[in-house]
């Protein structure tokens, strides 16, 4: 079962679970989101693996698709992949429309290495939300996608993001155990 099959909707019906495929699920469009700065921080460590990394990319693409207002003065996306060290995939200024952002996500290459989430969080705080020239009066969001415990300290870096009024969401991924 691919991520895109269960991502849009998972409906629990009294005795069981029904999964709607993309064809069955209504298309979601975020019409009332005028502006936001959204950064994906993606765990590219060896424990993720290439197959799961593709699932992560699919997930990211599906969460970007509803945002039709992707422009420099509207909804902007950035992406950092981390393992031992962070790797800049793209900044807020690199892509001016949704199609370009989706292509960049699709073309992202798997890194491998250790899980140093604290280093990744610090990179996002310093390079996406730390500069005065990048600050806008819009919602600031970081979406951390990881499969496990960090091998470094995340407390200080997470606190720095919080002090910058960045909302941090963590998405855990693992192999299902059916």
UniProtKB/TrEMBL annotation:
VWFA domain sequence ranges: 37-173
Subcellular location: Secreted, Extracellular space, Extracellular matrix
Gene Ontology annotations for the cellular component aspect, listed alphabetically: collagen trimer
Keyword annotations of the record: Cell adhesion, Collagen, Extracellular matrix, Repeat, Secreted, Signal
PROSITE patterns in the record: VWFA
GO biological process, one term: cell adhesion
Keyword check for Repeat: yes
KW Transferase (keyword) present: no
Gene3D superfamilies associated with the record: von Willebrand factor, type A domain
InterPro entries assigned: ECM_Assembly_Org, VWF_A, vWFA_dom_sf
Name the UniProt record assigns to this protein: Collagen alpha-1(VII) chain-like
């Amino acid at each position: 079962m691919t991520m895109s099959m269960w991502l849009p909707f998972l409906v629990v019906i009294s005795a069981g679970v029904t999964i709607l495929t993309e064809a069955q699920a209504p298309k979601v469009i975020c019409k009332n989101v005028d502006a936001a700065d959204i950064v994906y921080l993606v765990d590219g460590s060896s424990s993720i693996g290439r197959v799961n990394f593709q699932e992560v990319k699919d997930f990211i693409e599906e969460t970007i698709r509803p945002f039709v207002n992707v422009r420099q003065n509207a909804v902007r996306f950035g992406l950092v992949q981390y393992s031992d060290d962070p790797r800049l995939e793209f900044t807020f200024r690199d892509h001016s429309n949704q199609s370009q952002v989706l292509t960049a996500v699709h073309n992202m290459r798997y890194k491998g290495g250790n899980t140093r989430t604290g280093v990744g969080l610090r990179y996002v705080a310093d390079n996406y939300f730390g500069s005065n020239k990048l600050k806008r009066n819009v919602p600031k969001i970081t979406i951390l996608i990881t499969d496990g415990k960090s091998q470094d300290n995340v407390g200080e870096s997470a606190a720095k993001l919080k002090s910058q009024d960045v909302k941090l969401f963590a998405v855990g991924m693992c192999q299902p155990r059916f």
